[in-house]
Amino acid sequence: MPESAVGTEKDREITFAQAVREALAEEMRRDSTVCIMGEDVAEAGTPFKVLSGLLEEFGKDRVIDTPISEAGFTGLAVGAAMTGMRPVVDIMFGDFITLTMDQMVNQAAKVHYMSGGKWKVPMVMRTTLGATRRSAAQHSQSLHAWFCHVPGLKVILPSTPYDAKGLLKAAIRDDNPVVFFEDKMMYKMKGNVPAGDYTVPLGLADIKRTGEDISLIATSSMVQVALGAATMLEEIGISAEVVDPRTMWPLDEKTLIESAKKTSRAIILDEGYERYGVTAELASVIATGAFYDLDAPVKRMGAMHVPIPFSPPLEDVTVPTEQTVFEAARKMCGK
Amino acid sequence: MKMKMMKKKSSPVNERAAKVSQGDNGNSPLQRESSNGDYRGNLVRDLRLEKPSFKVLQIRDGEKVRYEVESADLEAPVPAIRESKYLRREHCIEIYRWMLLNRRMETALENLHKQGKVVGGVYFGLGQEGCSCASAYALGKDDWMGPMIRNQGALLVRGFRAADIMMQYMAKAGSPTKGRDTTSHFGDLERRNVVAPISMLGDLVPVLTGVALGARLQGKNIAVMTWIGDGGQSTGVTYEGINFASVQKLGLVLVIESNLWAYSTPSDMQYGVKDLADRAIGYGIPGVIVDGTDAMQVYDACHEACERARRGEGATLIEAKMMRMKGHAIHDGADYVPKPMFEYWKRRDPILRMENYLIKEKKWLSSADHEKLIAEVEKQLEAEREIAVNSPMPTPESAAGGVYCDESCHQIKPRYAMPKDRMLGQNEKQVGLKQSEAPVHFK
Ligand SMILES: Cc1ncc(C[n+]2csc(CCOP(=O)(O)OP(=O)(O)O)c2C)c(N)n1
Ligand SMILES: [Mg+2]
Q1: Residue A130 has pLDDT above 50, yes or no
Q2: pLDDT in the model for residue B63
Q3: C-alpha span between A176 and A249 (Å, rounded)
Q4: Is A139 annotated in the active site?
Q5: Neighbours of B34 (CB within 10 A)
Q6: Taking CB atoms and an 8 Å limit, are B181 and A310 in contact across chains?
Q7: Are both A44 and A179 inside the same structural domain?
């Protein structure tokens, strides 16, 4: 494969989709127990072309096109994982995790604990989140909070090609069921990704930009929004720090709290629904951990509490944008 | 004589199914091979006049992997249209008109897409118009349907305007969903009895069965029709919906649009049975196989299934064999489909077949009348396109609100009648609710 020939090349830019594919390819070469299953993963390489070329390299035994049956093939992954395989299942749209919930929540997540620590289910579920693709209410949701709620599952939300590759490799090597959410609007985004092997440990936040006046704690699709807002804020003299927790569980509470303590203000950004969502959990971590250092109540920004509408003028107001984050931050800083 | 050999105890459903299959108006049912006895042979009828078989194989070709088709039928001549037992001349012409409107509306959508007026992708029912239109044509006023994304023809037959569909695609404020939902994802519970598509494949099956249950509880047996793909039928919820309809003898008419592909996955990788209609045996309901490019066959099978539903005799599974003649959506070039498959089915274009039948075979339509018909359809579409294009986009303010139905909104009343109070059997006395222990042994 040309990628491996590149070897140690530094500053290599590839897309988010290529980074995901490279992580899978490298892990499949390294470990013959890694296999992929899902709808249209083989010949089509998924509708987003994330897996193109894997069928050619690894064959149909390890890149398995399944019938349309999410509940069923998630269960298949659980069973295969019990035999020592490391399946990576592909759920085409994050909206379809609803169909896999029972296998994930009542089996995969619980088996290690319920077996007295004797069994394990080392599987990964890859799926998508994110609106603004004009895909309407049943193809645009960000439902990652559902999995975050369940003990036994790990949940990853990468925001750059570099993180995507390193975190996915770590997820595949992890002995627990891990759910990996990819923002479908990010697949074409480019970034620096080393060609060789590396992992990003789960449970380690990343400071994407340092600042002094306000912390923008952002996940997945919202990291770019936060960075854009930070640039706008800089122009009016506000220095914003952008922190990406990267994994929802395990959660790097320490880095979030330290950032909020330093800046004394925090806005939490996540594309899931605000109500009972990820932003609520992160806000509570900061409100508790940085209480005496805060100059303002922690603010949360997420999706409007409606099914994501189709028409662009409607859809665009349902998710936080650089502009709305900028305004919220400016107000919080009293400028 | 096959009937006699059936076990006495067979359920009324099975006996009726057997009867239908015996009295097939001179067109004796093409007895299907069955190693398992008469009961099974009689439960699934095959109305087709040809029975091609295709096998799609994954071939490694150097660095590439591609699909190839294996079939002895690729050069077979196009069969005749099967005479309908029920449709008269004017009905046939009307169905043909819906098919034309369906196809030409989709061409209009494609053009709107090229002009950058469509938000998102376009989905086509190319090659499946006969199935979509003739099946919906079998529904009566009180019946219900739940279309899937390719059944835009069914929506037209059910009385929606092409403009409605166009506005949905263009995300306009004037669309039936006010810009909130997309494509053919809209319906009408008040007049046209249409439940909107659900993206999650298979979910409509129990929902439509539930519509039949609701009507039954209100004292009416109706037919409820929905469609599903050869891919979508793999979902567990499909089984659950059909099974309930079977147990309760609810009037589900499930049309499987067996079009050989589910996005990039050939049907050989979707299921292990030869014909999906055979699944009817497992559900305990009758199954029918039709040629989905022959609108007359589709109609007859659907008409009989709807009649059976309205008589309260239960569900029917209809497998319509045809081919998805484009990619999954407008962005998919379908390069993975072996060309000979397209060529085979192109010769069986449902509209060409019907045109030929009406003009040449039956002489029910003169060339001049045909041209007039097409001109009318085009004129209608142009007018509707104008309406659609001129509808405004929704305002951002209308995104919020309307998630919950409250007093200012509307009430859904029982559609047919108030359900009767608890019905008592002859020997049953009104004793109030049974006081039973909680079944603690159930986990
Ligand atoms: C439960 C579920 N899984 C996956 C999808 C994504 N998806 C939409 S259409 C499609 C292929 C459908 O194929 P088929 O049912 O044969 O219908 P066709 O497109 O051929 O009409 C897939 C996988 C979905 N909508 N629902
Ligand atoms: Mg199909």
Answers
A1: yes
A2: 83
A3: 12
A4: yes
A5: 15
A6: yes
A7: yes
pTM: 0.91
CATH of the domain at A184: 3.40.50.970
Instruction: Report DSSP state, residue B80.
Output: P
Q: Which helix (H) or strand (E) holds B213?
A: helix B204-217
**Sign of torsion, CA B352 B356 B362 B368?**
positive
| Residue-wise DSSP of A33-94 | TEEEEETT-SSS--TT-TTTTHHHHH-TTTEEEPPS-HHHHHHHHHHHHHTT-EEEEEESSG
Residues 120-179 of B with CB under 8 A from A: 120, 171-173, 177, 179
At residue B294's C-alpha, the angle toward residues B357 and B239, to 5°, is: 165
ipTM passes above 0.90: yes
pLDDT digits over A180-207, tens only? Answer: 999 999 999 999 999 999 999 999 999 9
Same-domain pairing of A245 and A179: no
Task: Kindly state whether residues A177 and A260 are assigned to the same domain.
Answer: no
CA–CA dist B296, B83 (Å, integer): 7
Amino acid at A241: E
Per CB-CB distance under 8 Å, the chain B contacts of A98 are 200
Percent of chain A surpassing pLDDT 70: 97
Segments forming the whole domain that contains residue A310? 206-332
Residues of A with Cβ-Cβ distance to B200 under 8 angstroms: 95-96, 98-99, 138
The whole-angstrom distance between A208's CA and the closest CA on chain B is 32
Distance B165 CA to ligand 2 centre (A): 22
Structure tokens at B267: 């049907």
Same domain, A138 and A232: no
pLDDT of residue B374: 98
Residue B71: the pLDDT is 96
Residue A242 shares a structural domain with residue A156: no
Q: For the domain that residue A301 is a member of, what is the CATH number?
A: 3.40.50.920
Asked if the structure places residue A302 within a domain, the reply is: yes
CB contacts of A138 in chain B (<8 Å) are 198-200
Contact status, residue A162 vs residue A192, Cβ threshold 8 Å: yes
- Give mean pLDDT in consecutive 10-residue pieces for chain B, a chain of 443 residues: 38 36 37 45 88 94 90 97 98 98 98 98 98 98 97 98 98 98 96 97 98 96 98 98 98 98 96 96 96 98 98 98 98 96 98 98 98 98 98 97 84 84 57 49 45
Please, which residues bridge with residue B56 across strands? Answer: B69
Q: Mind telling me how many Å the CA of B105 is from chain A's nearest CA?
A: 21
Q: Looking up tokens 């007895």, which residue turns up?
A: B31
- A308 → chain B, closest CA residue: B180
b/e for B38-67, b at 16 or more Cβ within 10 A? Answer: bbebbbbbbbbeeeeebebebeeeeeebeb
Chain-chain contact of B182 with A310 (C-beta, under 8 angstroms): yes
Distance from CA of A1 to the nearest CA of B (A): 11
Quote the CA–CA distance of B153 and B105 in Å, as a whole number: 9
Confidence of residue A264 (pLDDT cuts 50, 70, 90): very high
